[in-house]
Design a protein that fits this description.
Keywords: Glycosidase, Hydrolase
Low-confidence stretches: none
InterPro entries: I/U_nuclsd_hydro_CS, Inosine/uridine_hydrolase_dom, IUNH, Ribo_hydro-like
Pfam family, one: IU_nuc_hydro
GO molecular function: hydrolase activity
Protein name: Nucleoside hydrolase
CATH topology: Inosine-uridine Nucleoside N-ribohydrolase, Chain A
Structural class: alpha/beta
CATH architecture: Alpha-Beta Complex
Length: 318
Amino acid sequence: MTKKLIIDTDPGVDDAIALALAALSSEVDLLGVTSVYGNVPLSATTINARRILALCKRADVPVAAGAARPLVHRHPNEAGDVHGADGLSGRSAALPEPARPLDERDAVTLMAELLETSDEPVTIAPIGPLTNIAALLAAHPAAAAKIERIVIMGGALGHGNTTAAAEFNIWSDPEAAQRALTGGEAPCVLVPMDLTYRCAVDAAWLDELDSSGPIGAALHALTPDYREHYRGALGWDGMVIHDAVAVAEAIRPGTLQTERVPVQVECSFGPGRGATHADRRLPALRASTDDPDPAPDIELAVDTDLTALRALLLDGLR
């Protein structure tokens, strides 16, 4: 049975690969895609998502534009230095033009209506800032009953990538992330960059993607700026495809090994803003803490079979 899926995204090179993975999968019924600001402004993330779907010949999938800024505090900057000025290494315009108009509904309305009309539970995979997801949970509380899981790419248990403490997606809107991770309305899986970095792909993997066919070659062509960034970040020729790791788990539950722990987000101002705090103490010790309103447990992704995951991703994109 195919898994019903909605992707909330800010493409971004790794988002583009993740979106293509879902769009091409026979295991997925991709109900819709929603865009959010993040790696580049909303106008760019929206057209990038639509062009990736056009590349994958998925004119059946509606795309709706979402939040252009965080819930409370303005977004300090995008990540054009990592993904290129247009989010796709300057090559967005080389992709096919969208075959379907942008949906007239906003992202939150589209998600709420897709959830309401679905005859089965739906997985949501947010792979950008969590602004749209927090707004959905706040404005449409009844919709949560239809959510099977929210599989989030974000957070860092060790050091961050945007600041010393914070990973980009969570840092972009800490208040929204705190709302999504601690609200308890729907089961959450958090896929942090500690794990996604370990899942980085090397030059040989990228060469295989390039030679796999027209879609693989088109995706490979989007990577130069991103790959150059990660040559410095990793210290070798490869790149981290964070969002594809989370989408692989959304498509095939159990791909990642998880622990059930509460996770909270630092929303104060200062060097720790946007940090994700996972309480990995033993349950008995956590229970002894005098907290009148403890955060609910979520599934925190901590490990995977790296070889099998890389093969799964490559096979899905061929």
